[in-house]
Amino acid sequence: MEDKEIIGLFFEREERAVDETMKKYGARLRRLALSFLGDEGDAEECVSDAMLNVWRTIPPNKPDELFGYLARLTRCRAFNLIERRRAAKRSAQLVELTKELSECIPDPTQSFEKSELTELINSFLTGLKPEKRRVFVLRYMIGYSIKEISKETGFSESKLKTLLLRLRKQLKDYLKEKGVKL
Questions:
Q1: Residue 163 has pLDDT above 90, yes or no
Q2: Are residues 143 and 168 in the same domain?
């Protein structure tokens, strides 16, 4: 079936339009989605969502080239899925970092000025050797993973884990020494 006929079916709100579109372009769209997502299930979901968008947008849109239009919708959906994965990963990483630091930062119920804590942490960091300070900042202020810090610094992952554990203990001791209740 020709693209113009398929688009005509969409304008007539014939459900057969989706079937004909999938018959003609479904495999190409799945390959396109798979090239971005790397997962068959996600690719299938992406194509299904793109087909739903086609149904919703034709009419009023009347694309000159149907495959180009479908490919754009599929790519946009794939990028949205990728961004959602990244956001979930960032969220999980934030929980991990918070858990690591929870033993050496003040109890949130304690009345403590944020700026005061910032000054104490900056003072603590100033007293560290540059390589230790860099590791601490990369992990807890920039949010790098252990693997990323390992690539950045050349330290092994096990050495980094030990170093970070010791730095957290030093920070905890430093804050206690300065009168902060943990």
A1: yes
A2: yes
